[in-house]
Amino acid sequence: MAELSTTARATRVIATVVCVVLLLAGSAWGQDDKFPFGPFSMYAGVNGPNEPAPDTRVEGTDSTGRVIVLAERNAGVRRAEIEGQEGAYVADPARLARIADSYQRLNPGAPALVKVALIVREHEIRHSTATGRWYDDVRAVWERPS
């Protein structure tokens, strides 16, 4: 194998130092959206062996009464984005109207959504095992004005 030149070695060292500095700065002051230099806080938490496991979803109800799970494919919103901004949706449920608008843009022939709800399904866990029981916690609801 050929040895690296002094310039090549210096370039690799500088690139490594820059990456390490960005990772450390991102961990200290960054947000998850700065991936891959963010703090990776989405992996930081663990539920206890008897704590419920949350499963967040957004549901829309259209003008025919049909309930639709809204996701990236049909509404352009990812679950991680919803979970990351849950507090903002709870504080201001009118923000859910943006998801309804996005759904309409991506599904122009579909009936309009008249209601959007942010729901967290809490799956019961006992001794680190799912019991099969769950309950839905509706955290925020937006309804289209009539």
Q: How many H/I helical runs?
A: 5
Distance from first to last alpha carbon? 74 Å
Radius of gyration, CA atoms, in whole angstroms: 22 Å
Listing every helix as H and every strand as E from the N terminus to the C terminus, the arrangement reads: HEEHHHHEE
Low-confidence stretches: none
Structural class per helix/strand content?
Answer: alpha+beta
What is the arithmetic mean of pLDDT?
89
Lateral arrangement of strands in the main beta sheet: 2-1-3-4
How big a fraction of the residues is strand?
A: 25-35%
Secondary structure: number of strands: 4
Give the domain tally: 2
State the share of residues found in helices, binned by percent. Answer: 25-40%
Shape: extended
Biggest sheet overview: 4 strands, antiparallel
Keywords summarizing the entry:
146 residues, alpha+beta, 2 domains, four-stranded antiparallel sheet, 5 helices, extended
